[in-house]
Design a protein that fits this description.
Strands 3, 5, 6, 7, 8, 9 and 10 form a seven-stranded mixed β-sheet that branches. Helix content is 35%, strand content 18%. The chain has helices at 2-26, 46-52, 57-66, 104-126, 176-179, 185-197, and strands spanning 71-74, 87-90, 95-96, 101-102, 130-137, 160-168, 173-175, 203-205, 217-220, 229-230.
Length: 231
């Protein structure tokens, strides 16, 4: 009797394991052992996959290439805390001004966000595709807050990007500064894309965080031990 019960438990566990594995095969974004792909929406394992590429620049850029992202590899530059070993230039990506230089990790986050959040949400809430994304910069050799003391900003190494507005195919401009407040479609779109960015970036700061972010969404890939920051 005990042997039968033990066998039944083993069979049930095996069946659960097989079902779980089958589910992961259908949902690779949640599988920590599946390689990162820009075709997969952000999932439970996305942040750990992005973190694993932090010190493997060739592998990171390979994911960009496999995702048909236009980019250019630039030589390292800078000194000290603002030394940029990873300078990856965005050639395309709908970003304006063009030619933004950022880390490969940040570019991966931007591409995941663009494909799986920004474009679908623009269609859902605004009935139009996004044709251009206005940004306020990626690289700035400074500390957080711009003072002489404190921690260095992720912008100091190009590991961040500040998003100001979205230009739609029908000509409309949806900006964080002008459209964040209120309950209309533009405001709902901005709040949803903020939430969507939290699956692709380690840090997401919006006007809900503080007044310094009233006109942009700050997105970065700061190294973190557990989870991320989404405000």
């Amino acid at each position: 009797m005990k042997r039968d019960r033990a066998l039944l438990v083993i069979l049930m566990l095996a069946a659960a394991a097989m079902a779980g594995r089958a589910w992961l095969l259908e949902n690779p974004q949640h599988d920590p052992f599946a390689p990162l792909s820009l075709d997969h929406p952000p999932g439970w394992a996305t942040q750990s996959k992005l973190a694993a590429l932090r010190d493997n620049l060739p592998a990171c850029r390979q994911v960009l290439a496999e995702g048909a992202v236009d980019f250019a590899e630039l030589p390292p530059s800078g000194e000290g805390a603002c030394r940029r070993e990873d300078r990856t230039r965005a050639d395309g990506n709908l970003l304006s001004p063009e030619g933004a230089q950022m880390t490969c990790q940040t570019m991966l986050g931007h591409e995941l966000w663009l494909r799986h959040s920004v474009q679908p949400l623009a269609q859902e809430f605004l009935g139009s595709r996004v044709m251009r994304i206005e940004h306020l910069g990626t690289y700035n050799c400074r500390r957080i807050g711009g003072g002489d003391d404190g921690d260095w900003s992720e912008h100091a190494t190009g590991n961040a990007i500040d998003i100001a507005a979205f230009i739609l195919a029908d000509g409309r401009r949806v900006s964080v500064l002008d459209d964040w407040q209120g309950g209309d479609a533009a405001a709902r779109f901005l709040h949803k894309v903020r939430d969507g960015a939290c699956g692709s970036f380690a840090t997401v700061l919006s006007p809900d965080y503080n007044a310094a972010h009233a006109d942009h969404l700050h997105l970065d890939q700061a190294p973190r031990m557990i989870g991320g920051v989404c405000r």
